[in-house]
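Incident review: delayed structure delivery

Summary: a single-chain prediction request sat in the queue longer than the usual turnaround. Root cause was a stuck worker, restarted by the on-call engineer. No data loss occurred. The affected request and its eventual output are reproduced below so the record is complete for anyone auditing the incident later.

Affected input:
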Amino acid sequence: MVDPEPDIPVIRFDEGPSPRARLGFVILATDETSEVDLYRSSPRGVGLHFNRIESPGDITAQNLSRLMAGIGNTASRILPGSGVDVVSFHCTAGSLLLGERAVQQRLAQACPGALPTTTVSALSHAIEQMKIDAFSLLTPYTDDINEAFVHHFSSQGFRIPRVLGMQLRTDPEITRVSRDTIRAWAKEADHEDADALVISCTGLRSSGLIAELEERLNKPVLTSNQASLWHMLRKAGLDDTIPRLGMLFSH
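Output delivered after worker restart:
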């Protein structure tokens, strides 16, 4: 005798683990810092989804220029069934050298329905939103990339009275720069004519120092990972404040 079929509960669906927003990131294969920084800081209900693009080896202008060919394919494999709300090419020097508009076009083609952006776009929006006219710049980069950074932001009308670059060429080196070193170099990079300090590079472990440095320098401190999270949340329509990430999140 076959037992009668039991009453099976109806399968119900909700909005899933990320009901507020899904953010997608194309990061370098050698990036050890971004996921740690961003997962630690992301608000509840916001999903962060990453895919890695083949890294160019040494971080030079010539090598970074080769990244463009892989951006679309890498982005298209971030939640291909569900999609994301905002997608970013998450490499400051790479997005600077490849060009914001060109990179965003690749992202838009690869992720229809997602709002495209880049790390350098996030920094630009953060600087504008905070009404910063001049900022000092700390990077791990070599002089050629620093010069491109200065040219890009100077052409937008910003002044950069001091630039300090660590002359590092690989992600493993950049990732292992100690926090004490970042503290000391930040103090050295600061300038009396600067309204803020910008610390560039998604690989530098600077996000955990923002509040401390702002108190010490008495001015806003912007970093690549912090600005990216802020910008992508705001593009997704979210206005969360995250005190550990400094003054920027009050905007």
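Verification: The beta strands are 21-28, 46-53, 86-89, 115-118, 135-139, 163-165, 196-199, 221-223.
Action items: add queue-age alerting; document worker restart procedure.
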